[in-house]
Design goal:
Blueprint: E1 12-18, H1 33-47, E2 58-62, H2 73-86, E3 92-98, E4 101-105, E5 116-120, E6 128-129, E7 134-135, E8 139-140, H3 141-152, E9 157-163, E10 184-185, H4 197-203, E11 233-237, E12 246-250, E13 258-261, H5 262-273, H6 279-292, E14 301-304, E15 321-323, E16 325-327, E17 330-333, E18 346-350, E19 363-369, E20 374-378, E21 391-394, E22 402-406, H7 415-422, E23 433-437, E24 445-450, E25 453-457, E26 473-475, H8 481-507, E27 515-522, E28 530-532, E29 538-540, E30 545-552, E31 558-565, E32 571-579, E33 584-592, E34 598-608, H9 635-642, E35 652-654, E36 661-669
Parallel strand pairs: 1-2, 1-3, 3-9, 9-11, 22-23, 22-24, 29-36
Antiparallel strand pairs: 4-5, 5-8, 6-7, 10-12, 11-14, 12-13, 15-21, 16-17, 17-20, 18-19, 18-21, 19-20, 24-25, 25-26, 27-28, 27-30, 30-33, 31-32, 31-34, 33-35, 34-36
Helix pairs in contact: 2-3, 5-6, 6-8
């Protein structure tokens, strides 16, 4: 039981809003992804194995979707009001909004700490009317909260997802054109709606001291808190209020693919691969996915009753497996790229869902694949086509260690730069898989030529030209081809090795560690220690001291290594210790310095320890030579070696001397607290 109602919802309802076309705005401000988001979310809800939705209980407001109404302000209001009428105690309501967002001066400044309302823009959005202080036909966060509160008051459990952004202050230097493979921001500048900078500045309150932390959440506080009569409420936001959120062709580097919101696609992908998890775990998976993509922005936010199970109020263990269906000799499963499958992958077979081990002699190969489905064929010729009672099970997770680099746009190049880049075509680095791709193709690094320098722009498309978190660059003045190749190659090698470690951290789940971890940060300014949680991105400043408590919760000993990946792509080894059963440690690990600012990561690697073996010390990850003898390695240690690590610099200062899983804690190191 939860909140006085049944733990399992009686009826599932969904409202999916996708706004791609804005009739009162120029076409170059329209989007492509929200329509595709709407279709993908609908299909996923219907096929979701843990809690399917009936199609007649799913309402879609999206342009370009057959049978759907246009997502005008009146249509959205009417749909939300209708849910407040239809929903009852114990029902589950899923709300999904994809489209443009922006900010405007708050109608009621007392409800907004920053003096600004967040707006979701319906298809008939108008312009700012300074005489009344509103944007015509805007859906304001206050009103969304009231409409959701009316549904929650009926005892329904609500999950609301907002894949839009509110404002942006960062120049997106890599968006030099609008090719299909580059990302497009779901940000609409307030100026487009006639809101001047003066209006925005006048709306913001004056603060003193440390100030107020900006967040993207604005609905949770307006929806009613759960009581014995009301239902639970969870809200997922794609970005903080000072960030943009992108759409791009997904899944990345695979075909076919369609424009989607990165946030929408990541949510569905995480649920498909981890059914039965909690909202908090889902948030951690999304941040982990962004980390694997090496994205420093945006930072999604997750609020509400996060310890409840996704689409339910209970959590369940899961195994990735799917019934095999036979139709006319073709074997299909309801799983695809969203579930982590890839073309040519091998799947095991079990006769019953509860079977512990797969039959090594009976396996499938993925022949064709879409986002949500796949066809499979038996690998062995003597393998009889199975009955519908048999299941295909995921038996391994592959890691793609390739590191892709997109060349500069042709219009940026000169005969001199073309000569330099011809040397990169056949560039090879021992232990690394570097791949040069054509301009305007999505890649781990996009080369941008500006001010006679070569800039290494990441997947988030952000180029920071100066300051402590400046984007890496190499001057192209007075360099021979050999000198240029040596410098660029060294930078790419450092970036690739850090990226590979992040990828590996995204494969091994913290739940497999068997170690309880608690990170905190403290300095002379903070009144209370700051808890560093995997479901959020905390802000740290130079002078912060990071502390770690760790305890082995399993029977067998485990080796624990702590690593730090800086925003400058440095890798530092901080600590190593073997923990026997019930052993623990409580350490002040390191000081945050000003050596690098921006998105950084703390990784804890836990590997099973064999009896009477040497402690697995991963300090070689920061050594200068891959040829160094490393002794015996666990399977995970061998995978780290395969990733191809070499020399690094340090971004933090060590303190005090000194199967498996990997836990990642993301932090933003800033110059000072606001």
């Amino acid at each position: 039981m939860l909140c006085g109602v049944e733990a399992v919802a009686k009826t599932n309802h969904a409202l999916i809003v996708g706004v791609s076309k804005y009739q009162n705005l120029p076409k170059d401000l329209w989007l492509k992804g929200p329509r595709n988001d709407a279709i993908l979310v609908r299909d996923f809800l219907i096929s979701n194995s843990t809690r399917p939705f009936e199609e007649n209980n799913i309402q879609i407001l999206a342009d370009g979707v057959e049978g759907a109404d246009i997502p005008t302000l009146a249509a959205i209001r009417g749909a939300l009001s209708g849910l407040a009428t239809e929903a009852g105690p114990g029902d589950f309501v899923y709300l999904h909004f994809s489209g443009h967002g922006t900010q405007a001066p708050a109608r009621d400044p007392s409800t907004e700490l920053d003096g600004l309302d967040e707006l979701f823009l319906p298809a008939d959005i108008g312009t700012w009317d300074n005489t009344v202080g509103t944007v015509a036909n805007a859906l304001v966060d206050d009103e969304i909260g009231e409409l959701i509160g009316a549904i929650q008051a009926k005892g329904a459990h609500i999950w609301a997802v907002f894949d839009s952004c509110h404002s942006g202050t960062v120049t997106r230097a890599a968006n030099l054109s609008d090719p299909l493979d580059r990302e497009v921001s779901r940000k609409l500048s307030p100026a487009v709606l006639g809101i001047s900078d003066a209006d925005l500045v006048a709306a913001k309150p004056t603060t003193r001291g440390i100030g107020v932390e900006e967040t993207g959440g604005s609905v949770e506080s307006l929806a009613e808190s759960p009581t014995s009569e009301t239902g639970s409420f969870v809200a997922f936001y794609a970005a903080q209020t000072n960030q943009t959120t992108p759409e791009m062709r997904l899944p990345a580097n695979k075909t076919p693919r369609e424009p989607h919101g990165l946030f929408t696609f990541s949510i569905l992908e995480a649920i498909a691969q981890n059914p039965g998890i909690s909202y908090r775990q889902l948030g951690q998976e999304i941040l982990r996915n962004y980390s694997v993509l090496n994205r420093s922005q945006p930072t999604p936010l997750f609020e509400g009753d996060l310890d409840l199970g996704v689409f339910s109020n209970t959590e369940a263990a899961f195994i990735q497996q799917w019934p095999v269906k036979q139709t006319g000799g073709t074997l299909t499963i309801k799983a695809g790229r969203l579930h982590g499958l890839s073309l040519g992958e091998t799947l095991g077979m079990v006769e019953t869902p509860a079977q512990k081990e797969v039959d090594e002699n009976l396996q499938f190969k993925v022949e064709t694949i879409t986002d949500l489905t796949a066809t499979v064929t038996p690998i062995s010729e003597s393998f009889a086509i199975p009955a519908d009672t048999q299941f295909a099970r995921k038996i391994a997770t592959s890691i793609d260690y390739s590191f892709t680099i997109a060349k500069p746009l042709d219009e940026q190049q000169t005969p001199e730069t073309e000569a330099l880049f011809s040397a990169l075509d056949n560039f090879e680095q021992a232990g690394l898989r570097l791949e040069m791709t054509d301009p305007e193709t999505e890649a781990d690094v996009q080369f941008v030529i500006r001010d006679n320098s070569l800039w290494f722009v990441g997947r988030d498309g952000i180029l920071v030209p100066e300051g402590p978190n400046k984007t890496p660059s190499v001057s192209m003045e007075e360099k021979s081809a050999d000198e240029f190749l040596a410098i660029v190659g060294d930078n790419l090698a450092r970036m690739a090795r850090a990226n590979n470690l992040i990828k590996l951290g995204g494969i091994f789940r913290p739940s497999a560690m068997g170690v309880d971890l608690q990170f905190t940060a403290q300095n002379t300014v903070r009144e209370e220690p700051l808890v560093l949680d995997a479901a959020s991105v905390s802000k740290l400043v130079p002078g912060d001291i990071v502390f770690l408590k760790a305890k082995n919760t399993q029977r067998n000993p485990v080796d624990v290594n702590v690593l730090y990946i800086g925003s400058d792509f440095s890798i530092s080894h901080i600590y190593v210790e073997r923990l026997n059963r019930e052993d623990s440690f409580d350490l002040d690990l390191f000081d945050i310095t000003d050596a690098s600012l921006g998105r950084e990561r703390i990784l804890v690697v836990a590997t099973p320890a064999a009896p009477q073996s040497a402690v697995e010390d991963l300090s070689w990850l920061e050594q200068s030579s891959l040829e160094r003898t490393r002794g015996n390695q666990s399977e995970l240690g061998g995978m780290l070696a395969e990733a191809g690590f070499a020399s690094t610099t340090r971004a933090v200062k060590k303190r005090g001397g000194a199967g498996g899983g990997i836990a990642q804690i993301l932090v933003d190191v800033v110059g000072q607290l606001e």
